[in-house]
Amino acid sequence: MDCLGVSSVQNLQALSALLSTQQDDDEEDEFSKNVSPCAQLGPGHIGPPPKKDRKVSTANVKTKSKDIWREEEVAEGSQYDDLTDPRPQPEYEIILKQSVGTEDLFLGLSGKDPSSMCCEAMLVKIKLPDTKATDVALDVREKFLDLRTPKYKLGLHLPHPIHSQEGRAQFFSERGELEVTLLLKRPLDFINMQ
């Protein structure tokens, strides 16, 4: 009993012959000779056969150097990682901020929502007890914040890219806390911030 009928098998064979550039009829083994024509054809028989000599893409091929990673694969700020430095990491908190007015809060006119895509700034609060403002060394990059004091060190990979030249830092000595306000860099600011 044929599953497709003789005409359907012949149509599939004709379609396969049309779409393929070369046919390998000589390589049939004993198993395929004993199987009905309906069982011999499958979805892989339609179209040209796969090419055997494919070129390997050079995107993932390693160079002959002894480097493990390419420079663009290493996260920004990794040069500050020092595993032998015994200074502890201070407690910190990252808060995303939005500028909202009454028209946003009560009427929803600007289209802002509570998501991080509508935030304009990032506030990083770092607790530095028993530290003076003059002891703090702060370096801010696009995706990395580096803070050093005689007692603490913090290498923080930021969750969003920022404008490194447009930030502001304020040290509160009465509570031993540094607040760093950073302006977020968003590729779609003209859409999100209207």
UniProtKB/TrEMBL annotation:
Alphabetized GO MF terms: dynein intermediate chain binding; protein-folding chaperone binding
GO cellular component: cytoplasm
GO BP annotations listed: axonemal dynein complex assembly; flagellated sperm motility
Region (Disordered): 20-63
UniProt domain PIH1D1/2/3 CS-like: residue ranges: 89-183
Organism domain of life: Eukaryota
Pfam families, alphabetized: PIH1_CS
Family: Belongs to the PIH1 family.
Protein name: PIH1D1/2/3 CS-like domain-containing protein
Organism this protein belongs to: Anabas testudineus
Source lineage: Eukaryota, Metazoa, Chordata, Craniata, Vertebrata
